[in-house]
Write a structure and sequence with these properties.
The structure is a single chain. By secondary structure, this protein is mostly helical. It starts with 11 loop residues before the first helix and ends with a helix. Helix 2 packs antiparallel against helix 3. The protein is built from six helices and no strands.
Length: about 180
């Protein structure tokens, strides 16, 4: 269960040992994990800004939980890719991902706008940006579930879909409070 981030932060070796993605895998599995590593790294940048800049306890708590979960998941995904002798980074060229609708990403402009926001404007910007960001994770998980071959990677995609959908609902509740 460490892979889904419900456990406290763990070392790279214990996360890797907890869940392995043995067995056959295909290009979709590899691409999904590479894309999710990049996506998670952007998400971590955003939640770390929220941990530091938000004045609301509910947003700080959400950000801390996402930080712990996604940090563990990045370690796990990189471990799987390394075990498969695949690069842990994604090709950011738009043409490299044209067959599946492109690489969803929060651009540097959005991150910079978030970084420069303060107070309530920061919290509104963070929630709006992070809802969209987590929606992209749900979409990428659907791609893996329909085209992937590795059972553990597909199970991970299902956990991503469920947890990110829950996070989106939580953020929408915070936004509407």
């Amino acid at each position: 269960m460490a892979a889904c981030g419900t456990a406290p932060a763990t070392s790279e070796s214990s996360v890797k040992a907890a869940v392995s993605a043995e067995g056959a895998h295909n290009d979709t599995d590899v691409m999904y994990l590479q894309m999710m590593v990049a996506h998670h790294e952007q998400g971590l940048e955003m939640v770390r800004l929220a941990e530091k800049n938000s004045t609301r306890d509910d947003i700080k708590t959400l950000a801390q939980a996402v930080d712990a979960t996604q940090s563990d998941e990045v370690t796990m995904m990189k471990g799987w890719l390394t075990d498969w002798h695949q690069p842990t980074t994604v090709d950011h060229a738009p043409s490299a991902h044209a067959d599946h609708g492109g690489l969803p990403a929060t651009g540097p402009e959005e991150i910079e706008a978030l970084r420069s926001s303060k107070g309530a404007a920061f919290e509104t910007a963070f929630l709006n940006l992070f809802v969209a960001h987590q929606h992209n994770a749900v979409e990428m998980a659907a791609m893996e579930k329909s085209g992937g071959a590795n059972p553990e990677t597909k199970a991970f995609a299902e956990r991503v879909k469920e947890s990110r959908t829950d996070q989106i609902q939580q953020m929408l509740t915070i936004m509407n409070a």
